[in-house]
């Protein structure tokens, strides 16, 4: 009997707690990507490039490039180019990147080019925030969109003015890194949570020894590498693969006011409440009535008289009771019973939180 009760208790604990790896919950401080940016030219377009009369920087960039190649363009030459486009090139330089490694780049039109399909990016230096060149980008652009136009009509699918070059940049300069130089490592939590930070610290201490890890705050866990450990890489790999029982998260409802999307996590609950929601629509219709004299020589004048009709309708508005809901399925079922649109649901959720019957944090993005 005791074994059965103990097994049921373990099953309930496993159901309530969710085990995740530390690598999925944290990042290592100092191990991050760095943004790179550059300005370049795309050539080989099928007449869909920049209109150089409206984008003079395209012509200026082409003249500078030709001069570096030993070609002098006569002064005052007005080049009407259709197959060249000025672009901005962006990339992320991963941590621990070495010279000769390739990274992906994103190419985006800067001028008024119609499409970059079929274009080739010329050699473009990519700089960091310190204005140093860390990579060189070049290659054929892959565009995920398609378009066609004829006879004044056009059709377009997806974006034609931006594309990607897989492995389009070669790393030329390495970033300095102090990883492994000290005896401490710092883990940064993806989400701020005091309970989770302490849980991660306790899990590491149980595995590596008491006092190895310490929760500094709700987002930082500091790890001291034990003496005699020759490789921080192996030690960190063992730590990141540890399983942590994630505590219950805060109940939260996210509302996107621009798109009308409403997202809630599984911890959201409702208390008993009554909701009345109605739609008020007002229609204003104005028509002009022309009044003319009966006889041509009667001395009257033609008069235009506006006639306005206002119609006001209100639909819905029934008072509906919402029962207490202890899980997400019941919450969804109760809110669907109101028959409200997503835009109406945002107002209802705000009012329910103000009334104290929505047990969740409301966040509007």
Q: What would your notes on this structure say?
A:
- The chain is α+β, with helices and mostly antiparallel strands.
- It folds into three domains: 34-144 and 156-171, no CATH class; 178-246, 2-Layer Sandwich (Gyrase A, domain 2), CATH 3.30.1360; 252-290 and 305-364, no CATH class.
- Helix content is 22%, strand content 39%.
- The chain is built from seven helices and 21 strands.
- The chain has helices at 2-16, 22-25, 56-68, 194-208, 232-240, 328-336, 342-355; strands at residues 18-21, 26-28, 34-43, 85-93, 102-109, 120-127, 133-140, 146-150, 153-157, 162-171, 184-189, 213-215, 220-224, 243-246, 252-256, 261-264, 269-270, 273-291, 303-322, 358-359, 361-364.
- Strands 3-4-5-10-7-6 form a six-stranded antiparallel barrel. It has a four-stranded antiparallel β-sheet with strand order 2-11-13-12.
- A hairpin with a 4-residue loop joins β15 (252-256) and β16 (261-264).
- The chain is flat, with a radius of gyration of 33 Å.
- It starts with a helix and ends with a strand.
């Amino acid at each position: 009997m005791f074994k059965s009760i103990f097994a049921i208790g373990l099953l309930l604990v496993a159901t309530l707690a969710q085990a995740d790896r530390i690598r999925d919950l944290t990042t290592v401080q100092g191990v991050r990507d760095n943004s790179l940016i550059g300005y370049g030219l795309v050539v080989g377009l099928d007449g869909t490039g920049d209109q150089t009369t409206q984008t003079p920087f395209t012509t200026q960039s082409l003249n500078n490039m030709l001069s570096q190649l030993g070609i002098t363009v006569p002064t005052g030459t007005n080049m009407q180019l259709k197959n060249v486009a000025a672009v901005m090139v962006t990339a992320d330089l991963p941590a621990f990147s070495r010279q000769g490694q390739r990274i992906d780049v994103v190419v985006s039109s800067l001028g008024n080019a119609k499409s970059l399909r079929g274009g080739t990016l010329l050699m473009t230096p990519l700089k960091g925030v310190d204005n140093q060149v860390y990579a060189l980008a070049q290659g054929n652009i892959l565009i995920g969109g398609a378009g066609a136009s004829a006879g004044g009509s056009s059709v377009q699918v997806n974006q034609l003015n931006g594309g990607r070059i897989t492995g389009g940049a070669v790393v030329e300069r390495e970033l300095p890194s102090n990883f492994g130089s000290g005896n401490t490592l710092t883990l940064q939590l993806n989400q701020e949570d005091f309970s989770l930070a302490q849980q991660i610290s306790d899990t590491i201490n149980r595995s590596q020894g008491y006092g190895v890890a310490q929760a500094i705050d709700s987002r930082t866990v500091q790890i001291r590498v034990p003496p005699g450990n020759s490789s921080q890489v192996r030690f960190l790999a063992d730590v990141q693969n540890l399983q942590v029982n994630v505590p219950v998260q805060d109940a939260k409802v996210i509302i996107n006011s621009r798109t009308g999307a409403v997202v809630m996590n599984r911890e959201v609950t409702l208390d008993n409440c009554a909701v009345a929601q109605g739609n008020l629509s007002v229609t204003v219709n104005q028509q002009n009535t022309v009044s003319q004299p009966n006889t041509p020589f009667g001395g009257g004048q033609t008069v235009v008289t506006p006639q306005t009709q206002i119609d006001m309708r209100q639909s819905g508005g029934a008072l509906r009771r919402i029962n207490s809901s202890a899980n997400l399925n019941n919450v969804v079922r109760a809110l669907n019973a109101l028959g409200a649109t997503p835009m109406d649901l945002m107002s209802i959720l705000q009012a329910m939180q103000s009334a104290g019957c929505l047990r969740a944090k409301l966040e509007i993005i």
